[in-house]
Amino acid sequence: MTISIKELKSKFNRIQDLQSSSFNIPRFRYLEKDLFRKNREEYQKIESWISQSIKANNQIFNIRTFNFNDFSSKETISSPHLTDISSSEIFSKLGEINKSYDCLIDTEIPDNGRISGNVIIYSNHKTNPNYDLEFVIKEKRAMVRDIDSDSKIYSFSSPLQSHPFLNQIPSISSLSKEQINQILLHILYKAFSFYKKDVILEFTFFSIPSGILSYTSSSFPESYIVWWEYRKSE
Asked: What pTM does this model have?
């Protein structure tokens, strides 16, 4: 069964909102459902982008799928999510699945995920700073979907403490507790800067610079954190 949720904007427009607010978003392209038939010229531009990505890095790809109805503002949230698609498979898989779904195709590498989860900043934060942060920390392949089965939730009254997480988080071989604390604080400060409150922001910290900032920056941890989207708090 496919589940839907009411959203005021499509996923593509929400990602654009994040980019406009200086968040590091994934390297992606958006395909409206059945784009090949509706706009072959635009489809060919995306094919060109895929070909350039393959040529540059022998790239793997991921495809998130959904349907959004402008009239009802309903968006599917349980449609297929394909990961680790090889360069030899990407054109056939994309061509087939785009017949049924809107698609977001990205070039981030799931195996490089180390910290991933959600953060909500509540609208009363100016008088009583409040947020919920839930995430997983893994040696390899931390993904937002992991929090459904392997999550630890942190709730604090203020993010302005110097070391709020140090005594409550695990470390992994590639990251010390101090580094993880720095990353989580950065995630919170960034989320507080977003102009919308009471929305769920999805993020992943990668082991290497990722997202659109990887083209121009290697600053830690800013260019290592990819913000996937924001959505209504359920």
From this structure: 0.88
